[in-house]
Amino acid sequence: MTRLDRRRMIAGLLGWPLATLPGCAPGSLPAAGELKHTSFSIGHRIRDGLVQSSSSDSFDHARVVIIGAGVAGLSAAWRLERAGFRDYVLLEIETLAGGTSRSGQRGEFNYPWGAHYIPVPMRHNAPLIQLLSEIGLVEGISDEGEPIIAEQFLCRDPSERLFYDGRWLEGMYPFEGASQEERRQLAEFRDEIDRWVAARDNRGRRMFAVPMAVGSDDSVVRQLDRLSMSQWMDEHGWDSPRLRWAVDYGCRDDYGLSIERVSAWAGLFYFASRVSKPGQESQSVMTWPEGNGRVVEHFVNAVGDHLRCGVAVAEVRPGSSGDGSFDGPIRVTGVEMGSFEPIGWNADEVIFAAPQFLARHLIRNSDRELVRDGKEFQYGSWLVANVHLRDRPATRGFPMCWDNVIHDSRSLGYVTATHQMGIDHGPTVLTWYHPFADVEATETRRSMLRLEWSDWAELVMGDLIKAHPDLPSLVTRLDVMLWGHAMVSPRVGFVWSPARINASKPLGSIHFAGTDLSGIALFEEAFYHGIRAAEEVLSRIGYDHQPMLPLRADSTS
Description:
- This protein is α/β, with parallel strands linked by helices.
- Helix content is 28%, strand content 21%.
- It contains 15 helices and 21 strands.
- The chain has an eight-stranded mixed beta sheet with strand order 1-20-16-19-18-17-9-10. Strands 2, 3, 12, 13, 14, 15 and 21 form a seven-stranded mixed beta sheet that branches.
- Helix 8 (241-255) packs across helix 9.
- The longest helix is centred in the middle third of the chain and has 19 residues, at 180-198.
- It is globular, with a radius of gyration of 23 Å.
- The chain starts with a helix and ends in a 17-residue tail after the last helix.
């Protein structure tokens, strides 16, 4: 393809007119960089039948096999370890654990390849507080029962800025030049969020809570799932471009969907679930130069050699107990990446912590028939780039922050890897995020691998140059990661659908974990489902343990 053809393809992937696609002269691209992606090819080969069923006589035995070492699978393994149960193996197709929470390192810099913060949990999330205490983040508990996080792990001020009308402004809403009507609509929106924060259902539960399992399932919140966030705002008469931009940005940031495509339930969850009381700001966030890779490292150290990376699971075949309940032993077949040598385990229980879209390809009964569909689960694609700088770009207006957003862009801007270290001058790494929020992900995934590093690098540089014209002279390296199935999409009607609700239920000896089971891709949701699935297993096998779950929603929280 010519450069023009490739730019047309990128414009199509983004859902933009070609004329609005940011770009820069090819000669302005950095001299070094790499295009990375998750294991698309092996996943497709497994889907298409790369590995056939084979005899399990030579397979190893593990009482529990966990499939997928993202946050959910790591959390399940961590929970088993904390119970003193160690007859398990944790399998991961990639060479590194962590999924979209993994991180990278080059020279003196650490940086995220995906998720890069965790909000401070409220007191009802005792399991997460226990994990954070174990990592050394919690200094104590307040008189109200809330965790006190060590200051060095809370996002350092100044935390965020917005490039608007040619200069950087503090915060994420462009107050400068806002009309009285725009300010009125913003105030109304905040009052409405406070109303949801204050409300409790007839069981004393918050309407929106993290994890969502402790929030309300009352009809008053479920019906929000029938509307898009845009429609919900229309019903309130909120047409302010500034307000709608801010709400749209939040939805693209957490869900990879625009307000026209995201469920109003998910939109309100974003704004209300992490506010402890009306009138307060959202919970402070914990962050590290490597993002949530810091927590992944703790998990990996905790599970030790139970983790097997570079193993692609090709089939999960439950045995039959004669009544079709899948309570018999389970055969897990896979291949070693690279050599494609077959490998397998005979397991008593399986925790399937991979995304639900894989379940329909991997789990088969004794007649190799489909046992779980999963088609209702849809996933968005993302592009993440780490841009290495020899020095900071010039700034007009408010100085560089941790989170830096460009208003006139469909990207999410960038986070600064060295910000939390207190290093405000000299070399750094900018981690730039772009969700493919405006086009169906199936279309995106078909095309994204046909493009080259230079195409993506041009897009990244073109976007950043809007706010930093001097950037080309400062960039020493630009690496790009493509996430084909980055996060589940909480589109209209999905979050409270039977398909989503029923997906958490076990199939005999097969238990399910993963953030997609909540319909929203958050660290806390993945952690919750990992703990839940591990405790299902411990209970089924009769292993003595003190449950961490269920979490209890406190009506005064």
